[in-house]
Design goal:
Radius of gyration: 21 Å
Number of domains: 2
Structural class: alpha+beta
Number of helices: 10
Order of helices and strands: EHHEHEHEEEEEEHEEHHHHH
Distance between the termini: 54 Å
Length: 377
């Protein structure tokens, strides 16, 4: 586990073994967890013995009568209710870093929901604070036996898990959603466990989140109402960081699909990019709203006065999930192979997709209205 032969005040290597792997969906019993921060926090809680359970993998856990840790975190941070579209075609449309006017708000709410303090550590402009990053990682791994959440390290500035360090912190180990992608893993090595080994990691690191101590939480009913109010804010705020947000993002997405000049049939590289951005939006709505539809009935079981409205909202979100599968069907199914890319390039196909997006928007409006009414109960 650690090299104790050194004279330094900390071992040259310390790695937390057994932290659950996070990754894009690959089939199997576990449901899709394609959003990096909620999945990474879920895995850390599981390692720390604080899982809220998953009814698809085990018996539901007694904590808060929840049946899905991931659905809980998705909802608490607001991701389950969000959508974003930056003008143009951008792969960072739905980055959690741009979800809220206050960038740390989704993280604050998620950690409050799971009962832990946290600390966000950012790079300091014009100053190299690598030594501080390194020290905080070492302290968390070595002293607290807690993984660290990192943004970047391997791949784009998306969340990953730092599970350890080696060579006095010159090398970090962990799990990244992107560690198996050749375009992101140049120079990355791997531990026998499958953890990545990343040298010269600081230049590719955007920020860290240190998982802190357990904290007292608000009463369950108060916590749930806070999540529902945050859901309404995520859905009804029309613009965040220059991006169409929530319900307004559906309209922006649909309008972009009608811009025929953005789909030059002779340029397959551009068409692949357009398809990826569109497909990210489809996947965002499909997965996020599905988990919203799972979480709201959990609140309804505890808050019986809200049940009718919350179950109606959950039905709207489940319908959005199904509408996204209809969109995938219009391009030939889920996936990003060339035939699907070329299908999206057809104006007639995109004009069939637009009304489905607007139907999903209407279901989102209905869901928000149901949640608003539930909060009056």
């Amino acid at each position: 586990m650690a090299d104790q032969s050194r004279s330094s005040d900390y071992p040259a290597r310390a790695v937390l073994e057994g932290v659950p792997r996070v990754h894009f969906y690959e089939g199997g019993k576990r449901c899709p967890e394609d959003f990096t921060f909620p999945s990474s926090l879920r895995a850390c809680l599981e390692y720390m013995g604080e899982s809220y359970g998953c009814e698809h993998l085990m018996e539901p856990q007694p904590i808060r009568q929840l049946c899905c840790t991931y659905a809980y975190i998705m909802s608490a941070c607001g991701y389950a209710f969000s959508l974003s579209w930056r003008p143009g075609w951008h792969m960072d449309n739905n980055s959690i870093l741009f979800m809220s006017a206050e960038p740390d708000e989704p993280f604050r709410r998620a950690f409050q929901a799971v009962g832990h303090s946290h600390e966000i550590i950012l790079k300091q402009e014009g100053r190299n604070n690598e030594a501080y990053f390194r020290r905080r990682i070492i302290e968390s791994i070595r002293d607290k036996r807690r993984p660290v959440l990192g943004f970047g390290i391997v791949g784009p500035p998306e969340c990953c898990i730092v599970t350890g360090y080696d060579e006095d912190g010159n090398v970090l180990t962990g799990w990244s959603f992107f560690q198996g992608f050749p375009e992101f893993n140049a120079g990355v090595e791997f531990e026998p466990s499958g953890y990545f080994r990343k040298r010269d990691w600081f230049k590719d690191t955007h920020s860290l989140i240190i998982i802190g101590e357990k904290e007292e939480q608000p009463p369950r009913g108060e916590l749930y109402r806070g999540i529902l109010k945050w859901a309404l804010e995520a859905a009804r705020t029309p613009m965040v960081h220059g991006r169409s947000s929530g319900i307004a993002a559906y309209q922006a997405w649909a309008e972009h699909l009608l811009r025929d000049e953005d789909f030059p049939v002779e340029d397959k590289a551009v068409l692949r990019e357009r398809h990826m951005v569109h497909d990210d939006a489809v996947g965002m709505v499909a997965e996020a709203r599905w988990y919203a539809s799972l979480f709201l009935p959990q609140i309804a079981r505890h808050e019986s006065g809200m049940a009718e409205e919350l179950l109606a909202a959950a039905s709207c979100y489940a319908a959005e999930h199904d509408l996204m599968w209809r969109i995938w069907g219009l391009v030939g199914g889920i996936g990003r192979e060339e035939p699907k890319v070329m299908k999206l390039a057809e104006p007639s196909v995109r004009r069939q997709i637009v009304p489905v997006i607007l139907q999903a928007r209407d279901r989102d409006v209905e869901a928000a209205d149901h949640i608003e009414r539930a909060l009056t109960k």
